[in-house]
Amino acid sequence: MSWVNKINHLYHLNNQRIQNEPETKIYAEHHQALKEAVTKMQTVMDEALLGNELLSSARKLFVSLKKHWAGLTVFVENPEIPMDNNTTERGLRGSVLGSYGSSLDFEVFYLVF
Questions:
Q1: What CA–CA distance (Å, rounded) separates 112 from 88?
Q2: CA 60, 66, 71, 77 torsion: positive or negative?
Q3: 87 CB-contact burial (10 Å; exposed 0-12 / middle 13-18 / buried 19+)
Q4: Quick check: pTM over 0.90?
Q5: Which of 1, 24, 66, 73 is 20 to 30 A away from residue 54, measured at CA?
Q6: Burial classification of residue 60, based on how many CB atoms lie within 10 Å of its CB (0-12 exposed, 13-18 middle, 19 or more buried)
Q7: Residue 22: which residues within 8 A CB-CB, separation 6 or more?
Q8: Can you tell me the distance from the alpha carbon of 57 to that of 103, in angstroms, rounded to the nearest whole number?
Q9: Cα 21 vs. chain centroid, distance in angstroms?
Q10: Cα-trace Rg, the chain
Q11: Are 62 and 71 in contact (CB under 8 A)?
Q12: In terms of Cα–Cα distance, which of 2, 6, 16, 1 is closest to 72?
């Protein structure tokens, strides 16, 4: 749960940042806080991977996280890029539901394609 809280904190910091104009002082403060939080997360991940305390499933997750880190954090230096693609997925959901009729069908459709 600590990683869920860390990710929620990133969403909060990013939301604060993007509510402001890029050239303002408040934007710069939120941007710096976001960068520091992402850097701290990366440090925690790297330190966890160096240790032997992780369960194999957690190690596998951290290895994948480390492998994809640059893509997962691209929003930090590119605020026009959203942190996730939830809006796009919600937009697709309506057309799929209209075609197939249920959210279960959507889940099957999504998993297949």
A1: 18
A2: positive
A3: exposed
A4: no
A5: 73
A6: exposed
A7: 79
A8: 30
A9: 22
A10: 18
A11: no
A12: 6
Whole-number Å distance between alpha carbons of 41 and 34: 11
How many Å apart are CA 8 and CA 77, to the nearest integer? 18
CA distance 94 to 100: 10
Q: Could you tell me how far CA 72 lies from the centroid of its own chain?
A: 6
Token output for 41: 């997360």
Nearest 10 degrees: CA dihedral of 62, 63, 64, 67? 120
* CA–CA separation, 11 and 22 (whole Å): 17
Q: With beta carbons less than 8 A apart as the criterion, state whether 21 and 4 touch.
A: no
